[in-house]
Amino acid sequence: MALQIYKIATVEVGSAGASSIDFASIPQGYTDLKLVVCGRSNRASSVFDDILISFNGSTSSFTGRELYGNGASAASITTARAASIATASTATTNAFGNSEIYVPNYTSANYKSFSVDGVQETNATTAYAIMIAGLWSNTAAITSLSLSPSVGTSFDQYSTATLYGIL
Amino acid sequence: MAKTATYSLIASTTLTGTAAQIDFNSIPGTFTDLVMVITGVSNSNDNIFYRFNGSSSAFYSRTDLYGTGTTASSIRASSQTQGRLTNYGYPSTTVGEQNTIWHIMDYANTTTYKTSLCRSNRASSGVDAMVNLFSSTSAITSISLATNTFTGTANWQSGTTAKLYGIQAGSN
User: Fold this and answer.
1) Helix (H, G, I), strand (E, B) or coil at B106
2) Using an 8 Å Cβ cutoff, are A79 and A66 in contact?
3) For residues A83 and A134, what is the distance between their CA atoms, to the nearest angstrom?
4) How confident is the model at residue B3 (pLDDT cuts 50, 70, 90)?
């Protein structure tokens, strides 16, 4: 049986940090995309930071609904570009958030929905588990994507993101 | 010896017209788990329902954890004659707006009941995380999908896609 999940690229943040993690020139020969993110942000005075996504350089036409728990309660909010969650400066040292983002039919001429499951674990009272229903209301095929911290200015060293194509 | 894990496309469907149900028949029993990815389009904002092996027995139960954008809550149903994959993450009339990712574990065994995990998403209405149980020890050899129950009405709309993947455990 053929292996039908292929690694397209991996990005690892170096010692200087990175304001964004970018995947350009995404091959158009797959059906779906899966993005696995392991992230830590330099957001000050916080255990977490949202990670925002953009497609094809666009930050518009994003909507979403999020379900999250923080160890004390569960809640649901509306979102725009949130697509992952990272640990931040006051989280346990060396702890990174982890998320999986799945984008079906990314080359289609229809709107692009995406599914997010993520955790931001830290050895403290509050940590987050999230699930997001996302939508990019744009009919263009996705040829590039970018991740950036919502509040912080950069990803910390050793943050990684791996993009897979699925046939 | 190198591991030989696989993630293989078994079958896929893209509707170019309407349909009452989408069927995956003669599913090979050679994989370990199944993954189905659905992007649904319905004619009137309906939930996705499923049956295994064509069974309409009261074998289906589920627990759903959901968020609507304002409310987080949970709901359960048991002894149902069909399973359900969505609650607030249901298909709309807009192509590409909804998706469901469904993992069916150990589907081919004939010893245990069949548990599956499902995430359904629709940004304009909500997000679901659902566990389903099919209380039968039969191996799963077919999966049928309907929207707005199995009434025979052609509620699935053009643009709906469904892809069934098999995952095979690696070998040492």
Assistant:
1) coil
2) yes
3) 8
4) very low
Q: Has the ipTM of the complex gone over 0.95?
A: no
Question: Using a CB-CB distance cutoff of 8 angstroms, which residues of chain B are in contact with residue A66?
Answer: 67, 69, 127
Average confidence score pLDDT of chain A: 95
Contacts of A135 in chain B (CB under 8 A): 97, 122-124
DSSP H or E stretch at residue A166: strand A160-166
Q: Note whether A135 contacts B126, CB cutoff 8 Å.
A: no
pTM of the model: 0.95
Looking at residue A2, its pLDDT comes to 56
Residue of A nearest to B119 (CA): A115
For B:47-106, CB contacts with A below 8 A are: 65-72, 88-89, 94-99, 101
CA A106/CA B32 separation, integer angstroms: 27
Distances (CA, A) of B114 to A3, A23, B11, B24, B78: 25, 38, 21, 17, 14
Cβ A163 vs Cβ A26: under 8 Å: yes
Tokens 């194509």 belong to which residue? A165
The region of weakest confidence among A65-69, A149-153, B1-5, B108-112 is: B1-5
